[in-house]
Amino acid sequence: MPSNLESDFCPVTDAASVATRFLEGTAIELVGELPERARPQHVLFDFDGTLSLIREGWPEVMIPMMVEVLQGTGTPETAEELHDITETFVMELNGKQTIYQMMRLAEEVTRRGGQPEDPLLYKEEYHRRLLERIESRRKTLREGADPEGLLVPGSLLMLKTLRERGVQLHLASGTDEIYVKEEVELLGLTSFFGDHIHGALADHKAFSKAMVIERILAENKIDGASLIGFGDGYVEIQNIREAGGLAIAVASDEAGRSGKPDEWKRNRLISAGAHMVIPDFQEAERLVEFLFDPQSD
Predict the structure, then answer these.
(1) DSSP state, residue 95
(2) Please, what's the largest Cα pairwise distance for the chain?
(3) Residue 78 half-sphere exposure toward CB, CA atoms < 13 A
(4) Distance (Å, rounded) from C-alpha 287 to C-alpha 280?
(5) Same domain (yes/no): 289, 183
(6) How far is CA 63 from its chain centroid?
(7) Which of 100, 146, 150, 241 is the Cys-Cys partner for 273 at CB 3.0 to 4.6 Å?
(8) Percent of the chain with pLDDT over 70
(9) In the predicted model, what is the mean pLDDT of residues 186-191?
(10) 103 and 131 in one domain?
């Protein structure tokens, strides 16, 4: 698939049968044999669910909106049936740019004999509803609230620890770039990434996480062995793995911030090829020590 498009979920292993182990005394889970790697020079982060919790609960906005749209086709399916159908494809596509979920919605409308809107219009309506839901969170941050409660636990420590090691930090998100940059600023993270913040564009073919990875490798004349990626979506895990980097799944419990991995995320991301799994960044110093010195295990 061309790198300007985002790939479908493609399992490379069975999460239920693959051998895993934990770094001694930690919740840092190693999956199978780790790839050969060099000293980390560049680290790529996903945003929503990996660092930011501002948009926690987004499925509770997207799925009901889609059910409304599908009910408008006159389908005999019940609201409960449509909810189950919609939830399945929304979560299957989670990790891709939002527009892909809206393109699938348009396909579902057509399947039921309806006339779909342009997927961009569906996306705009979803964003309107989501921003309405999360405005109070954004407002508290604008008013100077401590961002810690809207970050995956340990995020600031992780970013600071990596920066102290001299690596270049990058961010790539499937959320629209204008919102990503705004929310990165609200969370006080801009200084960590500088100009290396990337998000979805109006033309979905003009951006993908794979394109960002290719650019990092080409512009810095490095191979994937010097690249690490963190994410809670399958796209970045697959892309990092395919590039030869170390793919670390962040199986974050977004609503509870419990410090325990979300099992659905864990299983899906291991299936996508994650080399390691963490619930959050509370063990950042131990994790960075291992990344720079694998013999520290």
Answers:
(1) T
(2) 62
(3) 3
(4) 11
(5) yes
(6) 18
(7) 241
(8) 97
(9) 98
(10) yes
- Tell me, yes or no, whether 213 and 127 share the same domain: no
| End-of-domain residue from the set 142, 175, 205 | 142
> CA geometry: angle at 139 spanning 138 and 142, to 5°?
90
164 shares a domain with 118: no
Q: Give the position of tokens 């977004």.
A: 254
- Give the model's pLDDT for residue 4: 62
Q: How do residues 260-277 score in pLDDT, each as one tens digit?
A: 999 999 999 999 999 999
Domain boundary among 117, 142, 167: 142
Q: Which of 24, 28, 8 is nearest to 283 (CA)?
A: 28
Mean pLDDT computed over 119-124: 97
Task: Say which amino acid occupies 151.
Answer: L
CA distances from 11 to 113, 270, 273, 292 (A): 33, 8, 7, 28
Residue 253, H or E segment: none
**Core vs surface per residue 12-37: b (16+ CB within 10 A) or e:** eeebeeeeeeebeeebbbbbeeeeeb
Instruction: Specify the DSSP element, H or E, that contains 49.
Output: none
The total number of structural domains in the chain stands at 2
Q: Name 21's Cβ contacts closer than 8 Å, sequence gap at least 6.
A: 29, 30
Examine the domain organization and report whether 38 and 128 are in the same domain: no
What Cα–Cα distance (Å) separates residue 277 from each residue in 129, 219, 250? Answer: 32, 29, 6
Inter-residue contact 195 to 169 (CB < 8 Å): no
| CATH number, domain with residue 216 | 3.40.50.1000
In this prediction, residues 219-229 reach a mean pLDDT of 96
Q: Is the pTM of this model over 0.70?
A: yes
**Mean pLDDT value across the chain:** 94
Question: What is the extent of the structural domain holding 222?
Answer: 20-53+151-296
In a domain, 7, yes or no: no
Burial grade of 71 (CB within 10 A; 0-12, 13-18, 19 or more): middle
Same domain, 93 and 116: yes
Pairwise CA distance, residues 241 & 243, whole Å? 5
